[in-house]
Amino acid sequence: MSRFEYAPAPESRAIVDIKSSYGLFVNGQFVEATDGKPFKTVSPASEEVLAEVSEAGPADVDKAVRAARKAFDKVWGPMSGKDRAKYLFRIARLIQERARELAVLESLDNGKPIRESRDVDIPLVAAHFFYYAGWADKLDYAGVGDDPQPWGVAGQVIPWNFPMLMLAWKIAPALAAGNTVVLKPAETTPLTALAFAEICQQADLPPGVVNIVTGAGRTGQALVEHPDVDKVAFTGSTAVGRAIAKSVAGTHKAVTLELGGKAANIVFEDAPIDQTIEGIVNGIFFNQGHVCCAGSRLLVQESVYDEVLARLKRRMGTLRVGDPLDKNTDIGAINSAAQLAKIRELSQIGEDEGAERWSPECELPANGYWFPPTVFTGVSQAHRIAREEIFGPVLSVLTFRTPAEAVEKANNTPFGLSAGIWTEKGSRILWMANQLRAGVVWANTFNRFDPTSPFGGYKESGYGREGGRHGLEAYLAH
Amino acid sequence: MTTLDSGVDSLADVTSSEDRLRRFLLGLPGVDQVGAEARAATLSTRSIKTTAKQYALDLAIQMIDLTTLEGQDTPGKVRALCAKAKRPDPADPTAPQVAAVCVYPDLVATAKRELQGTGINVASVATAFPSGRSSLAIKIQDTKDAVASGADEVDMVIDRGAFLSGRYAMVFDEIAAIREAAGDAHLKVILETGELVTYDNVRRASWLAMLAGADFIKTSTGKVSPAATLPVTLVMLEAVRDYHEATGLHIGVKPAGGIRTAKDAIKYLVTVNETAGPDWLDPELFRFGASSLLNDLLMQRTKLATGHYPGPDYFTLD
Amino acid sequence: MRKTYKLYIGGAFPRSESGRSYVVNNAKGKFLANASQASRKDARDAVVAARKAFGGWHARTAYNRGQVLYRIAEVMEGRHQQFSAEVAAGEGLSISKARAVVDASIDRWVWYAGWADKLAQVVGSSNPVAGPYFDFSLPEATGVVAVLAPQDSSLLGLTSVIAPAIVSGNTVVAVSSYERPLPAVTLGEVMATSDVPGGVVNLLTGSASEIGPWLASHDDVNAIDLCGITSDDEARDLEIAAAGNLKRVRRPAEEDWSADQGLSRLTQYLELKTVWHPIGV
Fold first, then answer.
1. Which of A85, A201, A215, A357 is most buried, judging by how many CB atoms fall within 10 Å of its CB?
2. Does domain C21-278 have CATH number 3.40.605.10?
């Protein structure tokens, strides 16, 4: 061997035991769906069918909501916060005990690199349950007044990009506040939610406190529109979020929405250059760019444009695309054929509109859904790839001359989820952070998450916050 | 950030006056500590298996500057070390030799005799190692002594006091003077990063040493804690990469002190590979200053070859 | 001499661009005045004015905004008699009860004024993340808030829905009570003389049912308060329209305007911004 070529280093699949088919998790049991057709979930890296999953129809959703209502009225609602906390702590521990298994399962079903599911997703899942467990008996201090009350039954719909982490963001605060939940995972990534159902069983969580209904949009709609749901929480696209906001109009349902983004990642001429390049890469290629807060619009100060681009391209050349279960993979598979088609379409539009497309040489596997890390230069605010959320490993590069121009471009979007700032000048960071209309501002870092840190957007990126004390507020009537 | 692609001429220019040098060094892009450490941590998660591991273990052995720098060193100790350098694993003649043996100046002659004709270099520390606290005249003499005794490589220390008080030109001039005194010997410049403390300083000192004529930049004497760390080495590798980009010249990097396991060594090689690039995966451009590391590399090598875990009693302690 | 009642948009007092006015009677059905009947284009102009004012207002120090709100209370005090007469006539209250309503309205401005420089401390946070990062969350104004003001409580209700929006830096387009618009017009005159920058508060007299849909569907409005809508169907339709750009919606609910107000109207129009920065040397 003349070069240092990393041999395959696959994480073992043997640790997971995927059943051939799964029912719905309702009232503490796995049950057959009564009015939906089963569907298949595949590994996006190979198109191998992993399992057959039940589709919950309206009648199934109704059963789940009834189970949640009963559990809320009879068990979980009356239970002391101290006792609820114990269940949540136990769940957190079980997640830690089964962390490697859950990471492998997540990477199989989602296509994300094992390094990310192992080092980011699953540790954060456990951390979220730990954090909110501690809140369960301290609700009086949540900042929503004396004796705060849960809403009741929460209907929660989550996306496929961080399947189990989004489940944790939804379920942990809901249960801590005393709500019961019916959660619908995304149709392409149901497996870790179903594994979580087993964890609920292992934790002896009272039946009906957590219900998992699998299915696609129809199932989600039935859940969100169910009249006995008190609280709706959704993470996903702005289009679906808008539909949900309409569907709950005129009801008494409380709603939080965490939607799309088109974050500006702003690089000034005095940025710490090597960490900035890492931040750009992490900002857009983390999780294949399937991140609502991805730094998908790179704004570079013109005075350092050439240098930043040269360094970025060099760094992109070292990204390893391939088998999600290989411990050395940096970029895994695109989650679904549909998402791949959308990324391809928008990238084609980028080219057609005159932007210059570049990807490093990389060999993509023959089967599965793959897209190389891609950068578009010569992009202006008028290009669709600078305005629409691509939700893939595609970066659009724009330039600016002054801080005010950077702010103007960064804010010139209907979204407002996140933004990045790279500069060594402290006062400029604070000035920029002030000016940017985004719910999360990362300065000299990007894509950091923590259960204590509120996350959520301005404008069409949705409303409500998840994480921290503010995330708890979303599950308390006030 | 300072634009570096303007080439050698402008770099020659930056050393033309004390003021320019100072402005150049202070104008280098900053290093964010958290970001640099996070990058090093991510590189540490690379999983190097089977054929890649074989390659890495053998390469790491060939990159070792097998070192003894103790007050209690004797010719006997150095002879034993040289024997180890030549035949790291008596049970396995396929085990490669190390790059160099590194000793104090007074033991250079001993090492030189032992290593005659092996292709293994003799490296000598010099310049009032490890503190560097003596006059320039003595440092020059120390260097000349080492070279006269046969040192192929000289590991000098910079004047950290001068550096930390901003007397960059003084540090520069001293390196240049030692460079001259070292003649044909390879010059490794020890930054003693544990005393420079910040990565910004590490980056500045790296550039200062390269501009002054270093063939290698080296993290540590091994006498100060922390010695080599992966993030410090990462920052130095970025510096040699950028210097190469600006000048076309390849400068080597040597982390020294504290690297004891094959697992650690492989993390460094991964960092070299993905930062400076494959060119640096060469003993001419990357070295480990180490002693106990060698046996761990040999043990892992044996494990790969035999399929079972070896014990330390089967490897020589010299 | 009788007063002409006009709209208040961008710090000026225009008549409705539509040229329309409508008769305002007192609680007993006796003619009081002709009020301008604001149109969708007046609403559009008001949103433009509110957006234009937003940057400057929201950039002011909290201390300064608090002082401006306090100033509103002071200037209202000087017009106590006029407000009392308008509230008494419009809401059919005795003059002494109307005076109490005006007192309560002034107190409410003072109460909200005090929140300006305390909100961030009460609803913001420092977040102890598990890593070397300084992480804090601060509230920030949502932007332009459309307010369909209460129909019954023409001054205290109006105050209670405008003050919490502007104190944090939002700007407001408010549609007054349809039948009792006069205190709103007078409040506009107070705004014009109490250091409130033009466009921060825009007051439209007219029909919430007519103007509401235009504000609810306006893409440059960030939030809407539906409290002046009395029909469930209408409220639902407005909420649906508001979903177009995902406005923050406050649904109509039973309100006791004389009761102490909590934080909920304040926080309704706040975004939370979380900022991360590494901690290193």
1. A215
2. yes
